[in-house]
Amino acid sequence: MLAHIQIRNFAIIDEVELELDGGLTVLTGETGAGKSILVDALGLALGDRADAAAVRHGQKRAEIALTVDIGTLPAVRDWLAEQMIDEGEECLIRRVIGAEGRSRAFINGQPVPLASLRTLGEQLVDIHGQHAHQSLLRGDEQRRLLDHHGGLEKQAGLTAEAWQQWQSDRRALADALGSREERDARLELLRYQVDELDTLALEEGELEALENEHRRLAHAERLATGVQAALAELYEDEFAAHPVVARQLRQLDALAELDPALASVRDLLKDAEIQLGEAADGLRRYTDDAEVDPQRVQWAERRLGRIRELSRKHRVEERMLHTVLAELQGELETLESLEARLEHLEQAVERSEQAWRALAETLSRGRRLAAQSLGDEVTALMQELGMAGGRFEVAVTALAPGKARASGLDSVEFLVSANAGQPPRALARVASGGELSRIALAIQVIAADAGSTPCMVFDEVDAGIGGGVAEIVGRKLRELGERCQVLCVTHVPQVASQGHQHLHVSKSGGRQTRTRIQPLDDTGRIEELARMLGGVEITARTRAHAEEMLGKAAQSAALRRT
Fold first, then answer.
1. Residue 84 burial (CB < 10 Å; 0-12/13-18/19+)?
2. pTM for the complete prediction?
3. pLDDT for the residue numbered 133
4. Contact (Cβ atoms closer than 8 angstroms) between residue 135 and residue 128
5. 176-224: pLDDT as tens digits
6. With helix as H, strand as E and coil as C, how does 376-430 read?
7. pLDDT tens digits for 22-43?
8. What angle do CA 304, 308, 313 make, to 5 degrees?
C-alpha cells in the first residue's frame, strides 16, 4: 500500500507530505482547493506524461515521491528483482519534472524509463475517474476479473501453459521443416564429401611421413650422387680419409712404443678409423636400398596433391583434414534421421494442440457461467448505487479460427448500459466519468479480493448523487477499504463520513496560492462534515448531524465485522 507521499512545487502545491494508512482515506475540501491535484500528482508519479505546466510558477522543477510497502506483493518484488532494483519491503518511486517540460523517473534511486515506471505503477495503484490507470478498461484485466469471479484462475493458468507448450512444439516443427527444404541438396553434398574423405582415408600422422618420403624420392639422384662421392672420399679412393687415417695409425703405433705420451693420440685415431669404417658401411647400405621406383614417386605426388586439394576445399590445415570427416559424418547422420524426427514432432504438435484445446474449451464453458453470475451481481449493485435501470453484462465471444491465444478460445468484454432502455456498450465508451467510477466501484466491490493492485483511487466517485445513494456508495467504499487501501476524493458528506482516515485539502491566498493537506482528528472531522452539510454557516444542528453521521458509520462498520 501507499505509505508516504511527498509533493514539492507541483501545480499550486508548494510542499505537502502525507503519511497514509490502510483502509478508506477520504479527501475533502472546498471546490478548487486542489483535491484532484493530489490524484494528478499520483498519476504523474506512476508514469503519466508531464509538461511544464505541472511545475509551480517560478520554480525550476516539481518533484513527487511515493513510498510503497510491498512486503505482501511478491509479484512486484519479483519484477523489481528482475530489473535489479529490489530494495526489500519498501519501494521508493520519484518523478522529477523540469520547468522546460522534461522529466526523469527513479525507482529505488535508480533512473528508469517512463515505460518501466508505468509497468510498476499499474501493479501498485489503480485510479478510477476521469483519469488514467483505469485498469478495468483493459481487456486482459476484464478477463482476469471474470476468471477470478468464476474460480477459473487455475484453469486459465493451465490453459496458458498448454498454449506455450503447443507453440514451442510448433516452432520446433517449423525449424525442422525449414531444414527439410534444404535437406536434399545438403545430403547430396555431404554424401559426396564424406565419400571423398573416406576414399582418401588419411590417417593421423600420415602426412608428415608422406612428405618425408616424397622429398627423398624427388631428390633420389642427387642423394645417390652425393652418397657415392662421400663414400669415395671417405673410404674407397687412394687418398680417402680412411686409408690416410689407417696409415698414420700404423706410424703412431710405432712411435707410441718410443714415447707413451703419443698413446692417447693413437687411441683417438683408432676411434676415427672405426667410425669412418662404420660410416662407409652406412653409405653402402643406403646406396643398396636407394633404388628409385618411378611409380612410387608418382603415387606420392598424386596423394599429396589430393590432400592439399581437399584441405583447400574444406578450409582446414592439411594435417587436420582427417577430423573433418568425423564432423561431416555426424551432420550426415543427423540429416538422415530427420524423417523420423519430423514424424515425432508432428505427433507432438498434434498432442499439445489437443491438450490446449481441451483445457481452453473447459475454460470457455466456465467463463460463460461466470459471466452470467458477475453480470447479475454487478447489475444489482448498480441499482443500489443510484443507477436505476442500469445493466451490466459480460460478453464472452468466441475468437475467429486462427485467432486463439494463450488466454483461451474467446475474448472477454465488459458491457454496460447506464440507463434503462439503452443498449449495452463497451465499458470504455461510457461517457460519464462519474458513472464509470460507480460501475468500477460495483465491479471492484464484488471482486475486490481479485484486485491486482493494492491501492485504489476514486476521484469524485459520488458525482451527481446524494442522500441514501451517497450513503450506500460510502458504505461500499468502506467495505472495499477493509480489503485493500482506498483513496477517495469526495464532495459528499455521506461518503466522507465512512472514511477510516480523513484528509482535508485547503487553499490559502497571499502573494502566491498554496494548497495544504492535513489529517483531521475526530473534532476536525465533525467540523468538516458540518461544513459539507451546512455550507457557510455552521450551526450546532449541523455539527450534531455530522457527529451522528460519524457515529452511524462506525456502528455500521462494527455490525459488518460481527
1. exposed
2. 0.59
3. 41
4. no
5. 777 666 777 778 888 888 888 888 877 777 777 777 766 766 666 676 6
6. HHHHHHHHHCCCCCCEEEEEEEECCCCCCECCECEEEEEEEECCCCCCCEEHHHC
7. 999 999 988 777 788 888 899 8
8. 150
Q: Which three cell numbers stand for residue 159?
A: 490453459
**What 3 state SS string does 95-159 have?**
EEEECCCCEEEEECCEEECHHHHHHHHHHHEEEECCCCCCHHHCHHHHHHHHHHHCCCHHHHHHH
Strand order in the sheet with 125-128: 125-128, 455-459, 485-489, 24-29, 501-508, 514-519
From CA 148, how far away is CA 450, in angstroms rounded?
A: 6
What backbone torsions phi and psi does residue 97 show, to the nearest 5 degrees? -115, 125
Count Cβ atoms within 10 A of the Cβ of residue 65 and give its class: 0-12 exposed, 13-18 middle, 19 or more buried: middle
Which of 76, 85, 131 minimizes the C-alpha distance to 108? 85
Closest among 12, 3, 128 to 517, alpha carbons compared: 12
pLDDT for 431 equals 47
Indicate the residue type of 221: E
What's the whole-number mean pLDDT along residues 328-352? 85
pLDDT at 291: 62
Q: Long-range contacts made by residues 153-158, C-beta under 8 angstroms, separation at least 24?
A: 155/359, 155/362, 155/363, 155/366, 156/363, 156/407, 156/408, 158/359
Nearest alpha carbon to residue 116 among 101, 127, 105: 105
Q: Distance (Å, rounded) from C-alpha 2 to C-alpha 343?
A: 56
pLDDT in the model for residue 91:
94
Task: Give residue 509's identity as a one-letter amino acid code.
Answer: G
Which one-letter amino acid corresponds to residue 237? D
Per-residue pLDDT tens digits for 453-506: 788 888 876 666 677 878 888 888 888 888 889 999 988 899 999 999 999 988
Alpha-carbon distance values, 178 to 171, 184, 328 (Å):
10, 12, 20
Polymer length of the chain = 562
Q: What is the model's pLDDT at position 434? A: 62
Relative orientation angle of helices 540-561 and 522-534, to the nearest 10 degrees = 120
